[in-house]
Amino acid sequence: MKKKIFSAALSLILLASCQNSLDLYPLAEPSAEKWYSTETEIQLALNDLYRIDFWQWDEDGTSNNFISDDGFYRQTLTPVKSGTITSQWAFSTTLWRNSYKAIARANRAILALNSDETKAKVNKAKLDVYLAEARLHRAGQYAKLVDKFGDVVYSDEVISIEDAYTKGRTDKKTVITKIYEDFDYAITNLPASYPVSAVKRATKGVAMALKARFALYQKDYKVAGDAAKACMDLNQYVLHPDYGNLFLQSTKNSKEIIFSIPRSLELKVTAGPTSDIISRNSGGFAAANPTWDLFCSYLCTDGKTIDKSPLYDPRNPFKNRDPRCTATIVEFGQPHLGFIYDPHPNALQVTRVSTNTKVTNNDNRANAQFASFNGLIWKKGVDDSWLLNGRLIEPEQTIVRYADVLLMYAEAKIEQNQIDKSVLDAINSVRARAYKAALSATTAYPAITTTNQAELRRELRMERRMELAFEGLRYMDIVRWGIAGKVLNRPIYGMLDPVDLRSKVVNQNLWFFPGTPTIDEDGTPDFSEMGKTGLIKNLVPTTWNDRQYLWPIPTSEIQINPNMKQNPGY
C-alpha cells in the first residue's frame, strides 16, 4: 500500500512538472499533449486536483480571530486590516493563480474524457463519475474566484495561450449559472460514498455542501437551503461525538468530515508553521494567537453573552463558558503541552507536569518579550503529538464538515424567514454536541428557542463563530454579512507591557482584562469603552477599506491582457 501511495504521489509531481506552461497564463492549455491517454492517467490527473494548494483557506488571519507578534497574523495578511490591499497582494494573486491552474487541468481532463478515444476505452458509468469529479473541482475553483473577485475570466474549454491573453471578464451572473450546472452534474453522477482510500474522493455530499456554501455566499438562500437539506438527507454524515478531539491529527475519517485533503508525514505533506502555535514553554513561539475579540464572543453556559450573563466573571473569564471556548483557547492554570499554562504577569515560574517541578515561565511577557501579547494561545487541534516528528503535523485539511452544513441550512431558512422546528434542531444539534448532550436533553445545554428572525440571525452568527473558529471561514462570513467594515475597523487589543500591567492593572485586581466589553447586534464584542481606560493596549490599529469587499485583479493579469478590467478602487 505504501508503494502504491508513493507511486501516485510521484506521478502527481511528474504531472505538475510537465504543465509549467500554466504559469505563463492560468487558463492556457497544458503542454502534455499525450496525457490522459489511459484510464490510469485520467485517475492520476484527477488526483492532482486534490492538492492543498488548490483548496487554500482564507485563514483566520484575514479576519478578527487572529493576532500575531508581527502586527497581524503573518505580514502577507496585514493589508486586510490596514486597508492597503493592492493588485500585487501575494495572498490574492496566489489564490487567483492556483485556482486557474486547477481550472485549466479540470478543463483538459473534461476535454479528454469527452473524446471518442476515451469513450471507447472507459465504460460510461465510470466516465460519468470521472466527468462529475472534474466538473466538481472546476465549480469549486470558480466559486472561490467569484466570491473574492466578482466578475472573473470564465472558460469551460481548453484554450490557447494566445486566446488567454485577450479573454476578458465574464459577468458573474453568467458564471454563477455555470457553477451551478457543474455542481448539479456532480450531484447527479457522483456516488454517495467510496471505500476509505489514500485519496479522499469527492462524493454527492461534497458537491451538495460546496454548492450550499457558494449559494449562501451569493445570498441565493433558496438554492443554499435546498442543497444543504439534500446533503443532510443523504444520511452519510453525523456530528463527531467529541468536539475537542475532532481536530486532532490522530482523528482520521470522522463521519463529520464531508470533504478534506489528507496530509502525510511519510509523503512530507504537512501543516505549518506549527511553532507559531506551540507555546513558548514547550519550545515554540506562540506568536499567532486568538484575539480577545474571539474569546469574548463565546457565550456563557446559560446561552447569554458575557455582557448579559450573571455567570460571567472577568476575574475568572474561562469559567461558565460554552465548552468550545476551552476546546479552542488554552485555559489559564491548565496543563498544555507538558506545562501549566499561566500568562499572569506575576507567574514568573510554572510547573513542568512530567516532573512536578517549577521552571521559568516563558509564556509570560515579564520573562519573554514576545510571549502572547494578550495572554491567549490556541488549543483547537493542538496536543502533545505536535511536539514529535520535528513539530511537523499531518491533520486533515478540512474543507467542509457536517456542522457547517447544518448551520448553512439554518441560516438559509432564517434569511427566507422560513423558521420551523428543523431550523432550531439544526442549530441546537451543533450546540448540544459541544456540551456532549443529546438534542432532546434541553436542560443539559442552552437550547435556542426563539423564532424571531432578527434574534435567530444573531444566534446563528454567534454559533458559527464559536463552532468554526480557526477553520478559515470567518472572513467570508463577515464579508457576506456586510459587517467587515465594522468589525475590521475595530482595533485589536491586548495587555499593557509588563511593567505598566503590574502597576495599573494587576495591583488593582483587574487581571485578566479590566472589565467586560459590550456585545453588539451582530454578536461581536466592542472594546472601545475599555480602550478609553488606558488599561488595555491597542495592538493593531485598523483601517478597513470598503473596496476590499472585492479583491483586485492581479497586476500581472492587467499588464498582459488589454481586455482585463480592474475592480473599482484599485
TrEMBL record:
<keyword id="KW-0732">Signal</keyword>
<dbReference type="GO" id="GO:0009279">
    <property type="term" value="C:cell outer membrane"/>
</dbReference>
<dbReference type="InterPro" id="IPR033985">
    <property type="entry name" value="SusD-like_N"/>
</dbReference>
<dbReference type="Pfam" id="PF07980">
    <property type="entry name" value="SusD_RagB"/>
</dbReference>
<comment type="similarity">
    <text>Belongs to the SusD family.</text>
</comment>
<dbReference type="InterPro" id="IPR011990">
    <property type="entry name" value="TPR-like_helical_dom_sf"/>
</dbReference>
<feature type="domain" description="SusD-like N-terminal">
    <location>
        <begin position="84"/>
        <end position="216"/>
    </location>
</feature>
<feature type="domain" description="RagB/SusD">
    <location>
        <begin position="280"/>
        <end position="570"/>
    </location>
</feature>
<dbReference type="InterPro" id="IPR012944">
    <property type="entry name" value="SusD_RagB_dom"/>
</dbReference>
<feature type="signal peptide">
    <location>
        <begin position="1"/>
        <end position="22"/>
    </location>
</feature>
<keyword id="KW-0472">Membrane</keyword>
<dbReference type="Pfam" id="PF14322">
    <property type="entry name" value="SusD-like_3"/>
</dbReference>
<keyword id="KW-0998">Cell outer membrane</keyword>
<protein>
    <submittedName>
        <fullName>RagB/SusD domain-containing protein</fullName>
    </submittedName>
</protein>
